[in-house]
Amino acid sequence: MMATKDIIDMLAGIEPGSALDAIRARRLQARENAQKSYLALFEPIDASDFSLAERAAVAAFVTGLHGESPVAAFYREKLAANADAAALGEAIRLEIERGKTSGPYGAFPAGPLSIENKAGLIYRVSAERKPALGTRLVAALEHAHLLVFRPRDAASTDVKALLDAGWSTTGIVTLSQLVAFLSFQVRVVSGLRTLAATNA
Amino acid sequence: MSATVNPPVVFTQDELGWVSWIDPLPETALTERHFAGLVDRARAKSEYFRLLVRDPEVLEARTKTDKDIFYNTADGLPRAERELAAAATSRYNGCIYCASVHARFASIYSRRREDVQRLLDEGVGADLGERWNAVVKASVALAATPIAFGPDNIAELRRAGLDDAEIVDVINGASFFNWANRLMLSLGEPSK
Predict the structure, then answer these.
(1) Do B69 and A30 touch (CB under 8 A)?
(2) Could you give the C-alpha distances from B54 to A105, B7, B45, B60, B188, in angstroms and in order?
(3) Which helix (H) or strand (E) holds A93?
(4) C-alpha distance from residue A82 to each of A52, A53, A105 (Å)
(5) How far is CA A28 from CA B36, B68, B165, B167, B169, in A?
(6) Nearest to A34 among B65, B94, B155 (CB)
(7) Least Cα separation, residue A38 to chain B (angstroms)
(8) Using one digit for the tens of pLDDT, what is the confidence trace for A185-197?
């Protein structure tokens, strides 16, 4: 299972024997399990609740929303390479452009924190792209955008919308993990790249 | 789906509950594959983990990532400051549940409960002294989308006395809570 090259090392440009390689080796279990998380999400033993094509499309969308980076390019290529999803590439690219904004924003529970509420884009997939994406992916992209930019706005009605669009409860758990994991992975890569650059 | 909860409306170091919006697996349905995913069998009592264990392979890998980033203190950043990075990230993203747990841990390990409380009360701009300010600011910059973390954050962490291994612990701890916050915020809600 660990034969695949470490994705974080690859995306962050960490070479074997480098200073950052040695530092990452001190958190070996974290490093190996970040990799296992990637494999569990993108090479799962059971994709029946969330297809590989859907995973690739959501991943390209989520990482693209974070701005151009080696991570975004990696998942864009993964989507392009997925036979079932190749035709989705252009639709996802256009939706990333429509969905780009700055976060986190959103509302706190009504009370003293309400003064910190910050309004922002409530993203919905464009009507013209809905037929190409299909009901399940439309709901997944709208949910992913919510999690990327305004997670504190999430409500029970949002998971209800996924159930209504045909997502199973298990599929919702994996979708949530995928979006949340990518939020982690893109930041670790960005942080490590920044640190490496200051030492170059 | 659960009906009534009593949600907290402020950030707190108190112990909170958490209620799922969708169905966790019942304890009686758990197989050995699920227990492997839970890592600690005692987690079968938790609604949150019985929900996440619907995808056991992802949960197992996530849990082991979490444990090493936060609990492997053989070297690197002191535990208190890893917890501070988690609490600051959660405060900024708005996860009242995660912030409560990790603010409490930050207080326990640092014995600076009032400073931690100021982070919760005043937000991520609270002045907590040079070293903690640098950790909070770096965590917040990483949590922003697009990511705002840059060479200035690294320079500030170094000025505050952190070496590169400690900076990697800040990066890992803060990044991990962008994972955790999004699960806790989107699959259910905290209760008092």
Answers:
(1) yes
(2) 29, 25, 15, 11, 15
(3) helix A89-99
(4) 8, 6, 33
(5) 20, 8, 13, 16, 13
(6) B65
(7) 8
(8) 999 999 999 999 9
Are the CB atoms for B30 and B59 separated by under 8 Å? no
Nearest CA in chain A to B120: A113
Strands (E), chain A: none
Q: Chain B: nearest CA to A140, how far in angstroms?
A: 13
Taking the C-alpha atoms of residue A142 and residue A76, their distance in angstroms, rounded to an integer, is 18
Q: What is the rounded distance in angstroms from the CA atom of residue A199 to the CA atom of residue A195?
A: 7
Residue A1 pLDDT greater than 70, yes or no: no
Span A6-21, average pLDDT:
97
Answer yes or no: pTM beyond 0.95. yes
pLDDT at A86 over 90: no
pLDDT means over runs of 10, chain B (192 residues):
76 97 98 97 96 98 98 96 98 98 98 98 98 98 98 98 98 98 98 94
Q: How far apart are CA A153 and CA A149, in angstroms?
A: 9
For residue B165, what are the CA distances in angstroms to A9, A145, B69, B142? Answer: 16, 33, 12, 17
Q: How confident is the model at residue A87 (pLDDT cuts 50, 70, 90)?
A: confident
- CB-CB neighbours of B32 under 10 Å: 8
